[in-house]
Amino acid sequence: MLYVIYFIIILLIPLYAQMKVRSAYSKYSQVYSTSGMTGAQVARRVLDANGLYDVAVEETPGQLSDHYDPRTKTVRLSTNNYYGQSVSGTAVAAHEVGHAIQDAKNYNFMRVRHALVPVANFGSNMSWIFVMIGMFAGLSKMLLLGIVLMAAGVLFQVVTLPVEFDASSRAMKQISSLGIVSHSEEAQARKVLNAAALTYVAAAAVAVFELLRLLLIYTGMQRSDD
């Protein structure tokens, strides 16, 4: 019964986070920005204000598919945010530019996250194979290998938190100091960014809980072997 409750909880946490971000984004997508600037214009304005003239701003398909690509030095904004003139679009565009500023300033946590990407991808893809074999076959060493691989993915999730929080902080400072948002819009933009940050917190929390659960299972198997 406890396992059922546990799995319900770890399913509900990310669902709740997704619901919050979509709700906040949808609500403030309907609020017209008083600056009259599109997300693309906001991104370009903040980039230029920070001397990042070489960073491009492009449209990318999908909804909430916005991201910064450090390999090509490109801020990519989903269609609604690229062309839209909403508070949500302004907040999201500024957040992605926040990552570009981190990149330009060699922000330490961003560098660590980039270095972890290949390890985390491999660990996330392979860990459950070893975990399942170890659990069903009763092989504690195989389970431990899976846990170690999973830990790389968990570390990536944890390191992502300061990167995202810092990008949002930089975003708010930029759009406020440049006069892109009014005083009342600052609170609205912050709500969008806080809701988005919640999805990363939820992902990290679920990853940590799962890692701890498997460690408890491994500890139990070790005791059984003694």
Give the distance, in angstroms, between the N- and C-terminal Cα atoms: 27 Å
What is the string of SSEs from the N terminus onward? HHEEEHHHHH
Total number of helical segments?
7
- Strands of the widest sheet, in order across it, are 1-3-2
| Helix fraction bin | over 70%
Which ranges are low-confidence, i.e. pLDDT below 50, for 5 or more consecutive residues?
A: none
Q: How many structural domains does the protein architecture include?
A: 1
Beta strands, count: 3
- What structural class results from the helix and strand content? mainly alpha
Net shape: elongated
Average pLDDT works out at 94
Largest sheet: 3 strands, mixed
> Whole-number radius of gyration?
21 Å
Proportion of beta-strand residues? 5-15%
InterPro entries: Zn_peptidase_2 (IPR007395)
Protein name: Zinc metallopeptidase
Pfam families: Zn_peptidase_2
Keywords: Membrane, Transmembrane, Transmembrane helix
Q: If you had to describe this structure to a student in words, what would you say it looks like?
A:
The chain has 226 residues and is mostly helical. The chain has one domain. Helices cover 77% and strands 6% of the residues. The protein has helices at 2-29, 39-49, 79-83, 87-104, 108-137, 140-177, 183-225, and strands spanning 56-60, 67-69, 74-78. It has a 3-stranded mixed beta sheet with strand order 1-3-2. A hairpin with a 4-residue loop joins strand 2 (67-69) and strand 3 (74-78). The longest helix has 43 residues, at 183-225.
